UniProtKB/TrEMBL annotation:
The lineage of its organism: Eukaryota, Sar, Alveolata, Dinophyceae, Suessiales. GO terms for molecular function: uridine phosphorylase activity. It comes from Polarella glacialis. InterPro entries: Nucleoside_phosphorylase_d, Nucleoside_phosphorylase_sf. Gene3D superfamilies: Nucleoside phosphorylase domain. This is Nucleoside phosphorylase domain-containing protein. Residues 7-113 form the Nucleoside phosphorylase domain. Pfam families: PNP_UDP_1.
Length: 144
């Protein structure tokens, strides 16, 4: 398989807990799923999509990702790099990062979120994220 599957890059634990709590308060427990997000290098080959115009060798990529990371609950293209940049920023602990995603398409079932539900999740989720950020101290507890 021509895909590199790296180790996990974890979010800031305090910020991640704050994001989760704010999302649960705004959206309800049933709308929030915590787990590992997988970051792919593209929307197509690395996410297991098939397209006759591209030779992706991706028939087993999703199965291999789930074998290595069975706790995975989502896949998109940006989060790993943002978490890695935050963890690499000097001085260490100076930049904090966490993530939340709005599920638009379920690759396993083929289900797609409707337009109205998507807009509501983006608006209410965005409001929750701003509340989470505003509630945290500017200096992480570990560096204070």
């Amino acid at each position: 398989m021509p895909y590199l599957i790296s180790d996990l890059c974890l979010p800031d634990p305090e910020l991640s807990a704050g994001v989760s709590a704010a999302l649960r308060a705004e959206l309800g427990d049933e709308q929030v799923v915590e787990g590992v997000n997988i970051t792919a290098d593209s929307f197509y080959g690395a996410q297991g999509r098939k397209d006759a115009c591209f030779h992706d060798d991706n028939s087993g990529v999703m199965a291999e990702v789930l074998r290595r990371h069975p706790e995975a609950v989502s896949m998109e293209m940006e989060t790993f790099q943002l978490l890695h940049l935050a963890r690499s920023c000097l001085p260490l602990g100076n930049m904090r990062a966490a993530a939340a995603v709005v599920n638009v398409a379920n690759r396993q079932t083929g289900d797609v979120v409707g337009e109205e539900a998507l807009r509501a999740a983006e608006k209410d989720g965005g409001k929750a994220l701003l509340k989470a950020l505003a509630s945290l101290p500017l200096v992480p507890a570990a560096t204070a």
